[in-house]
Each structure stands twice: as structure tokens, then as C-alpha cells.
Amino acid sequence: MIRCRLPFRLASYVSATLLAFVSAISCGSNSNPSNGVSQSQSVARVSTIDASWPQLYTDLQSLKSASDAVVSGKVSKAHATVRSGKPGYPTTDYEFTVSKVVWNSSGTDITSPVLLHQTGGVLDGTQYAVDDDPNFTIGEQDVLFLHEYTSGHFYVVGGPTGRFRVTDGMVSPMNDEGIQLPRTALDDFYTQIAQA
Q1: Which residues of 137-151 are buried (b: 16+ CB within 10 A; e: fewer)?
Q2: Residue 144: phi, psi to the nearest 5?
Q3: What are the distances in angstroms from CA 31 to CA 2, 37, 41, 43, 111?
Q4: Number of folded domains that form the chain
């Protein structure tokens, strides 16, 4: 794949706790991008976005304290990617079918599916993805630590540090920047969250 670097700075969205700065940095041609395509559009180029996360969580207690809810489930649908804010970075809302509310600080009902807001997506033949927090993909199973920024709309707290992938009943962190967690059985992870 051929890549070129085109830096530009973008303002933070939704909350200062999500992204401090975002810059789109690369483009190139790639017919089979590694970050996965969330929509059925064909992808001619990939643009990687670097994010500076103002808060990375290294333990479950602080991550849970910063969250409104922890849910387990599956990404079921991607909505159209749009440009939002200035200078117009791409964002996508995903439907996440909740199979279990692991923890809920507000006590209000969380109705499934919930809408997850994420920087990135496919727009005009280009796939945009945060380098260390890949776009959600349909069918992906996760345990997510969430903040509800408006009724029924959530984002993952701490970017990749609040996102845990579930594969064959085992949980692992999205990357190694946050909580150090060996592959753990899903029920054991629920217990760890409850005790945090």
C-alpha cells in the first residue's frame, strides 16, 4: 500500500475527556484495509487519524469511575459517516446491541440498541480510522465502558482503553496502552468490574 502524510489538526469533539487533538495523517490506495470497513462502500484510500487521549486508564477502578455504564454486546449496524464540526472530520454512529448491562451508575434503563459515536468511518471512498482505536465492525463483540453525552447516545470512555474485545468467550484489551489484562474469561471480567 502507498501512503502519503497530510497533517492537519482537528478540534476535540463531544468532550475534552474523549479526544484532545486529532490529526489525519495518511492517505493511499488500499483495496483491503486492515482496520475493517463498517459500511458497504468501496474503499480506494485509507486515512489514519492520530489521537491524543487526555486520559488513559490503567486500572478498572478509575475507568469505571469515569464511566456512566459498562455494557457487553455486539455491533449490529453502522449509520452513514458524516463530517461534523470544523474543519469537518468524519464520524460514524454505530448501533450496539446490548446483551448485558454489567454496571450502570445512573440506575436508569439502558435500552438496546445504544448508539455509539466514534471518530472515523468510510466517506467518499476513503476510510478514516483512529490509529490505535480501529473503527467498529459489524458483528464485533465487546465490553464497553461508556459515557452518555446525550440521551441514548454514548461514546467509549478513554478511547481504546475503555474497549475490550470478546473472542470465543475470552476478553482482551483493544491495545496495550491502558489496562494490562491477560486474556480473561468473560464471566471473570464481569466479576472484576463489579469488584472495582
Answers
A1: ebebbbbbbbbbeee
A2: -125, 135
A3: 11, 10, 11, 6, 37
A4: 1
Q: Beta strands 89-104 and 69-78: pairing type?
A: antiparallel
Retrieve residue 139's grid coordinates.
458483528
Per-residue burial over 73-92, b if 16 or more Cβ lie within 10 Å, else e, is bbbeebeebeeeeeeebbbb
What values do phi and psi take at 151, rounded to 5?
A: -50, 120
Domain range spanning residue 94?
A: 2-195
pLDDT of residue 157: 95
Query: For position 98, what pLDDT does the model report?
Result: 97
pLDDT at 121: 92
Strand segments, DSSP code E, in 79-124 are 82-84, 89-104, 114-123
AA letter at 84: S
Specify the pTM: 0.79
How many Å apart are CA 153 and CA 147, to the nearest integer? 8
